[in-house]
Please model this.
Amino acid sequence: MTISVDPEQCYGSGDCVHRAPSVFTLVGGFGAVIPGREHAVDAPRVREAAEGCPSAAITIRDEG
Ligand code: SF4
Model:
């Protein structure tokens, strides 16, 4: 899976960081994927974060 955050949609609620702190962080007040964690394996929490993002800014792409 590849995880990304659309900075145009994110409004910095921080929910993703609370749900999956090993993958998400806040940069300048907005959600971002921690560098090197774009292909994280903590799938349940990452999916929870994506589904729970209030602005639907998180995209998960499943490969293969
Ligand atoms: S949960 Fe969504 S809106 Fe909130 S910081 Fe994360 S990406 Fe941004």
Observations:
- Helices lie at 15-19, 43-52.
- Residues 5, 10-16, 31, 53-55, 57-58 surround iron/sulfur cluster (CB under 6 Å).
- The longest helix spans residues 43-52.
